[in-house]
Hints:
The chain is an alpha+beta fold.
Amino acid sequence: MQTSSQDNAKTILIEDKTFQAVKCEKCGAKMYPRSLLQPHLTRHQRRQHWFMKELRKLKYTMARMRDSA
């Protein structure tokens, strides 16, 4: 798969055919068909939730280490 050489950010060129794509506002990824955007955004949300969960655990651990010292 190769992207088109034009400045059009919402077009994907595959084997000399041009398809209208949708662009993720968060990471800039282009995807076709448009129905793939929602699962892609769901992965962004899951990753963000996981990151926040890990950050909370780290903050809790650091606070406990500070209190015990």
